[in-house]
Structures are given as structure tokens and as C-alpha cells.
Design goal:
Distance between the termini: 5 Å
Number of helices: 9
Function: Required for the export of mRNAs containing poly(A) tails from the nucleus into the cytoplasm. May be involved in the terminal step of the mRNA transport through the nuclear pore complex (NPC).
Strand content: under 5%
CATH architecture: Alpha Horseshoe
CATH superfamily: GLE1-like
Family: Belongs to the GLE1 family.
Strand order of the largest sheet: 1-2
Radius of gyration: 20 Å
Main location: cytoplasm
Largest sheet: 2 strands, antiparallel
Helix content: 55-70%
CATH topology: Serine Threonine Protein Phosphatase 5, Tetratricopeptide repeat
GO molecular function: inositol hexakisphosphate binding; phospholipid binding; translation initiation factor binding
Organism: Pachyramphus minor
Number of domains: 1
Order of helices and strands: HEEHHHHEEHHHH
Number of strands: 4
Length: 262
């Protein structure tokens, strides 16, 4: 509910503003320790990224309520946004976007961690689980860049708005595609913020969609094996449908004005 989201936002904002906040039966304040505020900035930003790789990866619609709270907090407390991006880029280099190369002397285990895989006792997580986490983080990022906290000050610019999404898309299409990962990330990103990008960039956006269809999808196909075609097929049909209908569907779960009356 919108009212519940406001409560969550106010509690976080009050904590970061130095006010005393009740949590789990005790009163806490960032003023209780000289590094209290920095510590809370760090842990809060980390928690938002964890929501992306956990909550959003399983419940895709949850990207929007989480993102709108982060967007509002970012606007009032820019340090949270900076640290959020640092955590996000470490956990999901594809959010930069960046595909780390294996350097000489880097062990396979260390390299897999650089690519975003979780490695425990030399065991690497399964590919499906890895893709699901990356998907959740990209969907959260794509939701953040288009949402603003509705009760904030609308005079200033979005702290990390759609221009960053446009840049991400352009940089992504300049990278050589990776099997599995690239098709999934592009589809997630376009599903979540394609409709917002087309409103802002119009003809430029449609040119990009045409480029994806004609030039970039064949390049993804070239590196994709028969067993990895699932996501690529979904990306192809999504792009084709959008170009045919000259419309990008509004993402499922987007927060409507009526949500804030609940």
C-alpha cells in the first residue's frame, strides 16, 4: 500500500536525518557514534542491492516500490546513491555495463567472483541462480532511473535519471555480447524502462530498437549455443512486437496514481 511505503520512507529519512527512530523495541540514532551516519549509509545502500538480487529476482513487480523509496532517499541523501552504485557495480558489473576480462595471475575462482558469481568453498553457484540474481539487480536499476518519490521536491533533477539508462543501453550495445547474459539483461532492461525511454527519446529510441533487431540480435545468436536460446527467443519476439505495434508496453507492476491512495 502507498501509506505503508510512506511509513518506510519516513523512517529511513528520519534515521538519516539524525532523528531518533524506534526499531525492534529500541531507540536508535546515527548521532550515537561518530561514524554512525557513514555506517548506516553503507548498510542501507547494501540492503537495497540485496533487495534487488533477492526480492526482485523472485517477485519482479517489487522492483517499483523498492526503487521509488531509494529514488526519494537518493534525492535527499546523495551519499546513499553513490554507495548504492558502488555496491551494485561490485555485485553486478553488467550494471556499469562492463564485462571483466581475466587478467594474468587471476585465479578462476577470483575471476568468477569478478563476473558476479557467488563462490562458496570453491563451488560456483548454478547458472540459473546467477542469471536470476543479475536479472533482479538490472530490473531494480531500470526502475530507479524512471521513478521519483511523489512527495519530494520536484524542482530539482532526478538524482540518477533516464539519461543514465540511455547511456547504459548505448554502452551495452557497444560491447561484444555474451551468451545467456546479454539477451537476458537487454530484455529485462527494455521491459522495465522501455516505455519511459520511448517517451523521452522517441525517434532515437526506435532507431536503437531497429539496430537491436537488425544488427545486435544476430551478434548474440552467433555466440549462443542451442541450449541457451530461451532468453534470446524472448528478446527477439519482444523487440519484433514493439516494432510492429510501434509501442513499448507499460511494465507490469508500475505504480499508478491510485496506488498512492491506498
Amino acid at each position: 500500500a502507498g501509506s505503508k511505503l510512506r511509513e518506510v520512507f519516513d523512517k529511513i529519512n528520519n534515521l538519516l536525518s539524525g532523528k531518533a527512530v524506534q526499531t525492534e523495541g529500541q531507540t536508535v540514532s546515527v548521532t550515537q557514534h561518530p561514524q554512525g551516519l557513514e555506517f548506516v549509509y553503507y548498510k542501507l545502500a547494501e540492503k537495497f542491492v540485496k533487495h534487488g538480487e533477492g526480492e526482485v529476482s523472485f517477485h519482479r513487480d517489487s522492483a517499483f516500490p523498492i526503487a521509488v523509496v531509494l529514488s526519494g532517499i537518493w534525492e535527499l541523501h546523495p551519499r546513499v546513491g553513490d554507495i548504492f552504485l558502488a555496491h551494485l557495480h561490485k555485485k553486478c558489473p553488467y550494471a556499469v555495463p562492463f564485462y571483466p576480462a581475466q587478467k594474468e595471475g587471476t585465479s578462476m575462482e577470483e575471476y568468477q567472483r569478478m563476473l558476479g558469481y557467488e563462490v562458496h568453498d570453491s563451488k560456483v553457484e548454478e547458472q540459473d541462480h546467477f542469471l536470476k540474481r543479475m536479472s533482479g539487480m538490472i530490473r531494480l536499476y531500470a526502475a530507479i532511473i524512471q521513478l521519483r518519490w511523489p512527495y519530494g521536491n520536484k524542482q530539482g533533477a532526478h538524482p540518477h535519471g533516464l539519461s543514465y539508462g540511455w547511456r547504459w543501453l548505448a554502452q551495452m550495445l557497444n560491447l561484444e555480447p555474451l551468451a545467456d547474459v546479454t539477451a537476458m539483461l537487454l530484455l529485462d532492461f527494455l521491459e522495465v524502462c522501455g516505455s519511459a525511454l520511448v517517451k523521452q527519446y522517441s525517434i532515437q529510441f526506435w532507431k536503437t530498437m531497429f539496430f537491436i533487431q537488425k544488427s545486435y540480435i544476430p551478434r548474440i545468436e552467433a555466440v549462443t549455443s542451442a541450449g541457451q536460446m530461451g532468453c534470446l527467443s524472448r528478446l527477439k519476439s519482444f523487440v519484433q512486437k514493439c516494432l510492429q505495434e510501434k509501442e513499448i508496453p507499460v511494465p507490469k507492476g508500475i505504480l499508478t496514481p491510485s496506488f498512492w491512495r491506498t
